[in-house]
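Need a sequence for this fold. Nothing fancy.
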Protein backbone atom coordinates (compact mmCIF):
# COMPACT_ATOMS: atom_id res chain seq x y z
CA UNK A 1 0.00 0.00 0.00
CA UNK A 2 1.34 3.42 -0.94
CA UNK A 3 1.00 5.87 1.98
CA UNK A 4 2.06 9.22 3.35
CA UNK A 5 3.60 8.80 6.83
CA UNK A 6 2.81 11.50 9.41
CA UNK A 7 4.85 11.58 12.59
CA UNK A 8 3.31 12.02 16.02
CA UNK A 9 5.21 11.72 19.30
CA UNK A 10 5.25 7.93 19.77
CA UNK A 11 3.49 6.65 16.66
CA UNK A 12 2.95 7.29 12.97
CA UNK A 13 -0.22 7.65 10.98
CA UNK A 14 -0.24 6.18 7.48
CA UNK A 15 -2.69 7.87 5.12
CA UNK A 16 -3.41 5.80 1.99
CA UNK A 17 -2.51 7.74 -1.13
CA UNK A 18 -5.49 6.39 -3.09
CA UNK A 19 -7.80 8.38 -0.78
CA UNK A 20 -5.94 11.70 -1.22
CA UNK A 21 -6.91 14.34 -3.74
CA UNK A 22 -4.12 16.83 -2.90
CA UNK A 23 -1.38 17.61 -0.39
CA UNK A 24 -0.71 21.24 0.44
CA UNK A 25 2.00 22.99 2.43
CA UNK A 26 0.94 25.45 5.12
CA UNK A 27 3.07 28.55 5.54
CA UNK A 28 4.23 29.35 9.06
CA UNK A 29 1.79 32.27 9.22
CA UNK A 30 -1.14 30.06 8.08
CA UNK A 31 -0.14 27.42 10.62
CA UNK A 32 -0.05 29.99 13.45
CA UNK A 33 -3.53 31.20 12.50
CA UNK A 34 -4.80 27.61 12.40
CA UNK A 35 -3.36 26.76 15.79
CA UNK A 36 -4.80 29.93 17.33
CA UNK A 37 -8.27 29.72 15.74
CA UNK A 38 -9.12 26.02 15.63
CA UNK A 39 -10.26 25.08 19.11
CA UNK A 40 -12.06 21.88 18.11
CA UNK A 41 -10.74 18.80 16.34
CA UNK A 42 -13.48 19.09 13.69
CA UNK A 43 -14.70 22.37 12.22
CA UNK A 44 -17.24 22.95 9.46
CA UNK A 45 -17.05 26.02 7.23
CA UNK A 46 -20.45 27.22 5.96
CA UNK A 47 -18.98 29.21 3.07
CA UNK A 48 -17.02 26.51 1.28
CA UNK A 49 -18.90 23.58 2.92
CA UNK A 50 -15.56 21.99 3.83
CA UNK A 51 -14.96 19.99 7.00
CA UNK A 52 -11.56 20.67 8.56
CA UNK A 53 -10.08 18.00 10.83
CA UNK A 54 -7.03 18.61 13.02
CA UNK A 55 -5.52 15.15 13.50
CA UNK A 56 -3.37 16.23 16.48
CA UNK A 57 -6.46 17.55 18.28
CA UNK A 58 -8.53 14.53 17.21
CA UNK A 59 -5.94 12.16 18.70
CA UNK A 60 -5.38 14.42 21.72
CA UNK A 61 -1.70 14.91 20.94
CA UNK A 62 0.08 18.19 21.75
CA UNK A 63 -0.01 20.46 18.72
CA UNK A 64 3.42 21.89 18.00
CA UNK A 65 3.02 22.78 14.35
CA UNK A 66 0.80 22.21 11.37
CA UNK A 67 2.92 21.89 8.22
CA UNK A 68 0.61 20.16 5.76
CA UNK A 69 -3.02 19.75 4.92
CA UNK A 70 -4.47 16.88 2.96
CA UNK A 71 -7.58 17.25 0.84
CA UNK A 72 -9.40 13.93 0.85
CA UNK A 73 -11.25 12.44 -2.10
CA UNK A 74 -15.01 12.27 -1.81
CA UNK A 75 -15.90 8.60 -2.10
CA UNK A 76 -19.55 9.34 -2.89
CA UNK A 77 -19.05 12.48 -5.01
CA UNK A 78 -17.75 12.38 -8.58
CA UNK A 79 -16.94 16.09 -8.70
CA UNK A 80 -13.44 15.95 -7.20
CA UNK A 81 -12.30 19.03 -9.10
CA UNK A 82 -14.26 21.47 -6.96
CA UNK A 83 -12.65 22.53 -3.69
CA UNK A 84 -16.00 22.57 -1.93
CA UNK A 85 -17.69 20.00 0.23
CA UNK A 86 -14.36 18.33 1.08
CA UNK A 87 -12.75 16.89 4.16
CA UNK A 88 -9.38 18.52 4.81
CA UNK A 89 -6.95 17.05 7.33
CA UNK A 90 -4.46 19.25 9.15
CA UNK A 91 -1.38 17.25 10.05
CA UNK A 92 1.93 18.04 11.72
CA UNK A 93 4.09 17.03 8.77
CA UNK A 94 4.35 14.39 6.09
CA UNK A 95 7.60 12.61 6.88
CA UNK A 96 7.73 10.64 3.65
CA UNK A 97 5.87 8.76 0.98
CA UNK A 98 6.47 5.02 1.13
CA UNK A 99 5.21 1.63 0.08
CA UNK A 100 4.28 -0.74 2.90
CA UNK A 101 3.60 -4.34 1.82
CA UNK A 102 0.09 -5.57 2.65
CA UNK A 103 1.50 -8.64 4.43
CA UNK A 104 3.17 -6.33 6.99
CA UNK A 105 -0.14 -4.66 7.92
CA UNK A 106 -2.13 -6.34 10.67
CA UNK A 107 -5.87 -5.72 10.98
CA UNK A 108 -6.74 -3.80 14.13
CA UNK A 109 -9.50 -6.21 15.16
CA UNK A 110 -7.03 -9.15 15.01
CA UNK A 111 -4.23 -7.36 16.82
CA UNK A 112 -6.42 -5.79 19.54
CA UNK A 113 -9.24 -8.37 19.67
CA UNK A 114 -9.89 -7.83 23.40
CA UNK A 115 -9.51 -4.06 23.33
CA UNK A 116 -11.97 -1.39 22.29
CA UNK A 117 -9.94 0.40 19.63
CA UNK A 118 -10.95 3.18 17.32
CA UNK A 119 -12.64 2.32 14.05
CA UNK A 120 -10.68 5.19 12.55
CA UNK A 121 -7.81 2.78 11.94
CA UNK A 122 -7.87 -0.13 9.53
CA UNK A 123 -4.55 -1.70 10.45
CA UNK A 124 -1.25 -1.46 12.27
CA UNK A 125 2.35 -2.21 11.45
CA UNK A 126 4.99 -2.87 14.08
CA UNK A 127 8.21 -1.99 12.33
CA UNK A 128 11.66 -2.36 13.77
CA UNK A 129 13.43 -1.62 10.50
CA UNK A 130 14.96 1.86 10.55
CA UNK A 131 15.08 1.86 6.73
CA UNK A 132 11.54 3.19 6.33
CA UNK A 133 11.82 6.90 7.15
CA UNK A 134 13.77 6.12 10.30
CA UNK A 135 10.65 4.99 12.16
CA UNK A 136 12.46 2.14 13.94
CA UNK A 137 10.11 0.51 16.45
CA UNK A 138 7.25 3.02 16.56
CA UNK A 139 3.89 1.60 15.49
CA UNK A 140 2.34 2.78 12.24
CA UNK A 141 -1.46 3.14 12.39
CA UNK A 142 -3.28 3.04 9.05
CA UNK A 143 -6.02 5.66 8.89
CA UNK A 144 -9.38 4.35 7.72
CA UNK A 145 -10.15 7.41 5.61
CA UNK A 146 -13.67 6.40 4.59
CA UNK A 147 -14.67 5.88 8.24
CA UNK A 148 -13.06 9.18 9.23
CA UNK A 149 -14.94 11.10 6.53
CA UNK A 150 -18.25 9.47 7.45
CA UNK A 151 -17.80 10.10 11.16
CA UNK A 152 -16.90 13.79 10.84
CA UNK A 153 -19.72 14.58 8.43
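Here you go.
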Amino acid sequence: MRVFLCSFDDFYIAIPMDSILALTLQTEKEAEVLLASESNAVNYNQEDRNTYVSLPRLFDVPVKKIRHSIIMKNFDNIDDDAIKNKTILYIPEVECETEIPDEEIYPIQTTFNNTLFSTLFSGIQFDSRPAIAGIGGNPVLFLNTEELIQSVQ
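For context: The two ends are 26 Å apart (CA to CA).
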